């Protein structure tokens, strides 16, 4: 059971966490809690460090940031005691959660679940500090913002837990953003793969890296509300009774910008050169679209998208790279939006793409670029059409209606 | 170099600590910093725990409290970076400072100085979190309030450091309380033994347990101000050039109460029975005075002192014990004060006690009880005479004048 920052944001909420854990234990479960820092605490600690030095070193930043989860783990254990239960806090170096040495964005290498198992065998609720680990040299590391989800799934995997419950302030994953589309519907069950592709929907409730781990170790995740007992959204393997739908959800991303390189030489290796250079500059590219050569010569156009914030800092670099790759012109468009449909059903249902294009065309929405994966189709459209496109696709693929469960 | 809570109480002060450490390093020293939590932080954390449960378990309390030093150690390391130096924070479990499992009042068993030595060999300033350690089972422990002094001396001993500098907000140890006696003088050098007996003077600047460790391992302590470069007070072994004085300081304690047991049976084992029982109740007794039997029978009186706060909670227990030991009456006096003179010179100078009694008598101060050790004489007097007695003894033993140094 993982509780995020707002779920442990006050003494009352910490007590609520303790009660929920004890209920789960009374129902016959061994219970491991994973807790984040109390909301606001990580920012307070960061700002303290920034007052000391504008660019604090990552090793010491992790030592400071890890105290947020250390305090909430111990407070939660105390709250369990207060409710008459048994509990024990366990920190990253006590569990131990071994990571690489990439401070502030460490990745978990292994988890030794012995200390947790010992606590469970004594009838205790193990309260594990999320977000933190320890490297080979005993240095404290953190997993990056939202890393507590990753801690939770990794601990669940190490224990072979029957489920990893992620408690949050929303009641599950929706077919699309309810703020954009009022008929958005809570999804009961969704596959790991779909969840990964719906990153932009899911990121608000679930750290995407944790879904990768859950998929790798086949740990069912239950995303649900800390404030209600209602079931939320199960994120599970494909074989675990998924809804029988073609499209599971509609996502959008307004944070991307489009770069259009005009008239590149159309010879082998140009694209490779281009994106190698871009990658060397640590510019992270999302969609890449290259058309076949124009009829009028051996030149081609390449379009790609990247985050708007990356564009600001890397415009001159991109132009230099484009020039050296022989581009005749570089054009930018920041008023774009990526709208995507995601669903396992696409793999077996033909005509999903053409239906998507037709739905958008019917509304007069011009598609600037298309990119597809096995279970996702994304269209770049003018930013002003974002909401209209999302609602159109949501209705067009019948997502507001509850689907029949698979037999 | 150990800096307490007020010395790291703000970002500016933490920067000051970093600068002092770098100066010491530039002067050719290997430097280890030991830091406390920022002032107020420990209380903030305790109050958070108390909001969760009125009597928080000691194991979890230590997990919470230890974060105070964890944050200030990392902030101090960052401040050293900011000043252009190299530094690395080290926590109790990283050093590692092995303690027993007595949460909230653990005692250090051993220190593995490898991690500190490695940091020093890289030219780094090692910033060790004070107050904390780790037990055999990897649980976080704390050493009790003021425990950072103990951490500092223990680390200095483990490293064979040439000195342990304790930085504080006063500039040293004084011959008596300057608030009571304006002619009180800063002591340049004092022995470990005298410092231990002057606990009530020293406690404000130096944790007494740390002096015991310093004495055991012969680590010279330099108590000095964080806000000036002036030398403070050296606490050293007897052979290290001490001032040539009979009396080193005058201490007083207003926090004690007197208990007078009247008419106990005067037979072997009565005192033993009495104080065994009192000790079983965890009542801590200071002075114990038993007079020879009264001429009028085989009954004797016993007087002892204990802290006023202990008296409140243990009055009924004391009366029960007194009854079972055959006492005819139990009398209390809370308006008492203990005034003491301390000095190695007493061992060789006769007449120190009689001079003390005469000085007090000359001022009309009645002595209610006397207790002596090899280097300390304490008199119990009416509380209203405390300040007069302190000033009288301070002048009478010539403490306001700087003593000649031993050749």
Sum this structure up briefly:
Two copies of one chain form a homodimer. The first copy, chain A, has 407 residues and is an alpha/beta fold. The first copy, chain A, is built from 13 helices and 20 strands.
Instruction: Tell me the span between the first and last alpha carbons of chain A.
Output: 29 Å
Name of the CATH architecture of the largest domain in chain A? 3-Layer(aba) Sandwich
| Assembly state | homodimer
Count of β-strands of chain A: 20
Number of domains of chain A: 2
- Would you give the CATH topology of the largest domain in chain A? Carbamate kinase
Give the overall shape of chain A: globular
Which protein chains make the most extensive interface, counting residues with beta carbons within 8 Å of the other chain's beta carbons? A-B, 37 and 37 residues
Portion in strands of chain A: 15-25%
In the predicted model, the low-confidence regions of chain A spanning at least 5 consecutive residues are: none
Q: CATH superfamily of the largest domain in chain A, called what?
A: Acetylglutamate kinase-like
> If helices are DSSP runs of H or I spanning 4 or more residues, what is the number of helices of chain A?
13
- Give the % helix of chain A: 25-40%
Q: Biggest sheet of chain A: strands side by side, in what order?
A: 3-6-2-1-9-11-12-10
């Amino acid at each position: 059971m993982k509780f995020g920052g707002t779920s442990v944001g006050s003494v009352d909420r910490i007590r609520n966490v303790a009660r929920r854990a004890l209920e789960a234990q009374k129902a016959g479960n061994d219970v491991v809690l994973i807790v984040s820092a109390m909301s606001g605490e990580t920012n307070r600690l960061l700002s303290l460090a920034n007052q000391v030095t504008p660019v604090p070193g990552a090793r010491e930043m992790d030592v400071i940031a890890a105290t947020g989860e250390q305090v909430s783990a111990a407070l939660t254990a105390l709250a369990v005691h207060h409710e008459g239960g048994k509990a024990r806090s366990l920190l990253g170096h006590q569990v131990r959660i071994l990571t690489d040495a990439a401070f502030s964005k460490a990745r978990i290498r292994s988890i030794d679940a012995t200390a947790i198992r010992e606590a469970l065998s004594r009838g205790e609720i193990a309260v594990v500090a999320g977000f933190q680990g320890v490297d080979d040299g005993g240095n404290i590391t953190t997993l990056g913002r939202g890393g507590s989800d990753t801690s939770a799934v990794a601990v669940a995997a190490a224990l072979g837990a029957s489920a990893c419950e992620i408690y949050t302030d929303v009641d599950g994953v929706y077919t699309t953003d309810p703020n954009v589309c009022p008929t958005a519907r809570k999804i009961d069950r969704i596959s790991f793969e779909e969840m990964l592709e719906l990153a932009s929907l899911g990121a608000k409730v679930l750290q995407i890296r944790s879904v990768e781990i859950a998929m790798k170790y086949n740990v069912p995740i239950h995303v649900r509300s800390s404030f209600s007992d209602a079931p939320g959204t199960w994120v599970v393997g494909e074989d675990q009774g998924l809804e029988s739908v073609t499209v599971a959800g509609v996502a959008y991303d307004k944070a991307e910008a489009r770069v259009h390189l005009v008239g590149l030489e159309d010879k082998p290796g140009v694209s490779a050169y281009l994106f190698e250079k871009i990658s060397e500059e640590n510019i992270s590219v999302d969609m890449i679209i290259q058309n076949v050569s124009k009829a009028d010569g051996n030149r081609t156009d390449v379009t790609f998208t990247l985050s708007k914030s990356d564009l600001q800092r890397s415009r001159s670099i991109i132009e230099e790279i484009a020039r050296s790759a022989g581009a005749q012109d570089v054009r930018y468009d920041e008023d774009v939006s990526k709208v995507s449909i995601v669903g396992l059903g696409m793999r077996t249902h033909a005509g999903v793409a053409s239906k998507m294009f037709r739905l958008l065309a019917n509304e007069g929405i011009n598609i600037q670029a298309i990119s597809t994966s096995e279970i996702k189709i994304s269209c770049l459209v003018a930013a002003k059409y974002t909401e209209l496109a999302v609602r159109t696709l949501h209705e067009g693929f019948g997502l507001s209606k509850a689907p029949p469960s698979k037999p």
